[in-house]
Amino acid sequence: MALSPLDLMLVTLKDLRGNLVRSGLTMLGIFMGVAAVNATLNIDAITTAQIQQKLNERDNPYVSPWIYDPSWEKDPPKLDDEELLLIQREIPGIQSFSTVNEVYGISNVQYQGQVAEQFSLYGVSQGYQQVTGRKLLEGRFFDPLDFDQYHAVAVIDEVMMQQLFQGESPINRGIYVRGIRFTVIGVSETKKTWAEQEPSGEIWITDNYATTLSYTFNQRRSQFSLQKLDDYKAVEEALEAFLTQRYPGFEVWISSNADDLYKEEQQQRASARVLNLVGLLSLVIGGVGIANITVAAVVERTREIGLRRAIGATDLEVMLQFITEAAILSLVGGLLAVVTVHFLTQTATTRVFEAPYEFRPRDATISMGAAFAVGVGASFLPALRVTRIDIVQALRGE
């Protein structure tokens, strides 16, 4: 006798209620496996968010080469824009390039009665904003005319704006550096360059103007921003090899502002792989438990199976009943695991320690999908045994 989908569901639920211990143990196995998987995904999400948070506090990840003569007898080669463009084309993973020239020997900067003494003054090239990724909060960045015509203009960051202008708009106002008036044309967000750096205020001027302003030593360096943090090591090695081959006899040293974050990300990925393995093992153990319980259920209900088949139920319908039972228990156990882990993670990241956590539907879907796949997969072979039961022997309870 064929059962409609609704009747099949009702019969399945009745059987589940009829043996609460078996149903509870099955759900517990799935609960533990899915909880392990979902907790692993949450930990991965938290550590990824922490790394992203640190990246957002800094300039975009970049590498910066330094070429020097080991004997200190020859002047190092200077990388012009044509050379930098060649490097960008030849080395995969580089997004953009710029040059920055830190100007030393400037003791203070003034605006009317306000004086700032703790700051950094940089001469920057056209691509500097793109390389660092700093957004302009107000005004504009330098245009080609500012470089070509040596305009005395400047972009300052939020810290410098607060020091000199107490939060008021500085656009089109003049600040004085060594008696030279620079018109402020833009305000940039403040970011760190290095992990341990505490922002003290920055002023950007065009790199060619910075060269004329430098009475003392200044250091001009090239910067290559990365398309993504994962490219850091590959770009670093490729850049060192390229410059070493291009300039024989010189040593090449590569620095980066994201070396610590790259190492942290690699450690996080290694830990995530171990945790994923633990989660998968927990799911497998839960699946073995479901398979054993389904086998026991088939043996226990042999007479019922024989009776249903004798009055017209097909092998597929009887199989579907056992698989449906496993699917329901898996989905319920998986849902309870996802909800429980979510609230535990939320509580831990707000009351025990502070960490960025946000519920991700994708992770919940993966966890529920894993629960369903393990539950149905583990019950399939035991349910298939139903088709091999002899009806006459089943009716006898053998």
Can you summarize this structure?
By secondary structure, the protein is of the alpha+beta class.
What is the alpha-carbon Rg in Å? 33 Å
| Unreliable parts | none
| Average of per-residue pLDDT values | 81
Shape type: elongated
- What is the terminal-to-terminal distance? 23 Å
Q: Helical residue percent?
A: 55-70%
The biggest beta sheet is recorded as: 10 strands, mixed
SS-based class: alpha+beta
Provide keyphrases for this structure.
alpha+beta; 398 residues; two-stranded antiparallel sheet; ten-stranded mixed beta sheet; elongated; 13 helices
Task: Report what the structure shows.
The chain has 398 residues and is an alpha+beta fold. It has helices spanning 5-18, 20-56, 81-90, 128-132, 144-148, 158-165, 207-213, 232-246, 259-300, 302-310, 315-352, 361-384, 391-395; strands spanning 62-68, 94-103, 109-111, 114-116, 120-124, 136-139, 153-157, 174-177, 180-188, 202-206, 218-226, 251-256. Helix content is 55%, strand content 18%. The strands form two sheets. Strands 1, 2, 5, 6, 7, 8, 9, 10, 11 and 12 form a ten-stranded mixed β-sheet that branches. Helix 1 packs across helix 11 (315-352) and helix 2 (20-56) runs antiparallel to helix 12 (361-384). The model has no long low-confidence stretch (mean pLDDT 81).
